[in-house]
Amino acid sequence: MRKIKLIYILLLLMSSFSSCTKDELLNSSDVLKEVIVKDDSNKLRNNVEIQLKEPAAVQIEYWKSGSEGEALTTPFTEDGLNPVVKLILLEPDTVYDFRLTIKKEATLFHSQVFSFHTRSLPDNLSPFENQLPGSTFRFKGYISIATKPENSYLYMINDQGKIVWYQSADNKTIVNSTFDPVHNTFQCILGQNPNEQFGGDEILVIDLYGNIIFKRTYDELKNPDVHHDFRRLPNGDLITINRYKKAFDLSSKGGGTNEIVNGDGLTVMDLNGNIKWEWNCFSAINPLDYSFIMDEPQGGHLSPRQDLLHANSVSLDTDGNYLMTFNRINQLWKINSTTGEVIYKLGVDGDVDMPQEGYTSGIHSSHIDLDGEIMVIDNGKANQQTRALSFVVDEKAKTAVLKKDIKFPTELFTMNQGSAYMMDSQHILLGSTMSKTMAITDMSGNPVWQYQTDEKFFRAYYIDKIDLTKSPN
């Protein structure tokens, strides 16, 4: 194993705590014995192994050589003689510098600067190809996707299209992933559920260091048929979209007297898997109210009885209630997170008065954008043009105003799936699933940054800042 060994480092250290004055000098040999940088099994992670003469806590600042102003900072370890600090979000084939801060009681010791060289990426990772080589657009932070082949990976890339973080799904397909910036975790639906075409056989929460925070197989869940969305809530709980099945008498529509109809539900659970709240669509609708209920499957899609509404996203509104999109009926519902009451139905044949130009033809990825508006992606199946739309809804008056209508180029059309999120007040990140492309556009839909990969992905997320000093869980 390649390693860089730094033994018996002799340097002068300065304290920033009251036990030592600003100008008092301390020798590192009093606390620091040895520093070793070792390779992790993940090629964009390195482990710094530290040996101390007395128990203390250690923090590391690290940066690309020559870019100290962009340093990342780890949290302090627990007090110990042999702390190990994992460094992440590293570019491949790059020299990094780092400095230790050792906290012993009320004293901080700051070490000299050390260096190490990161490794090359594994050969089997996806490429990210620049589609606008003349672009000078730059941004801070990262863009994350999860590719969808049988051997999937989670990725984070920077504005140069360089992979700075990846995580294997261990030969499983990532059906969908989300990132939670509050807890710095990814939530993933993995594999293939034998009972659910759009779902996985496992749900998983991992942190940025690859540690598993939560894992359940579908047969360990009360509501096992999780599909399309799995998120972490600000309080740390988890929310899933799941299939909900119920028998109905459809004889008045030409069906049977005891036919199973597959609808959708929501389940909220804690990290121990304890269910805290449940909801299902049949508390708000009756399948008999849909004229298409007895239609047969078309174009490779399931029949309405097999997949009545096709829920595909859930998110929080500003008041803590849920926003949920339904692709078959092109509606967004707001659902009371306590009572389960459907507050409104926005969209085609909904109960909110809205302009028809705000109707969608394929709807995904509901969320509250940076302007506080409800944003969705309109796939644009009817006219082959994908859009980002945002709305302001007056719940009492049951009216909606279309605030943003951003049309993307035809080459970025995505018939299914996809996402659109504001990066800042002037730019949108489009995840075009079918073209395998991540594009940053201006507010008129013109691309200013665009990368394509070799595999489809459900959504593309912008992660503007990661604070590594907070608790990873």
TrEMBL record:
GO terms for molecular function: aryl sulfotransferase activity. Keywords: Signal, Transferase. InterPro entries: Arylsulfate_ST (IPR053143), Arylsulfotransferase_bact (IPR010262), Quinoprotein_ADH-like_sf (IPR011047). This is Arylsulfotransferase ASST. PANTHER family: ASST-DOMAIN-CONTAINING PROTEIN, PQQ ENZYME REPEAT PROTEIN-RELATED. Pfam families: Arylsulfotrans. Residues 1-21 form the signal peptide. It comes from Prolixibacter denitrificans. The keyword Signal applies. PROSITE patterns: PROKAR_LIPOPROTEIN (PS51257).
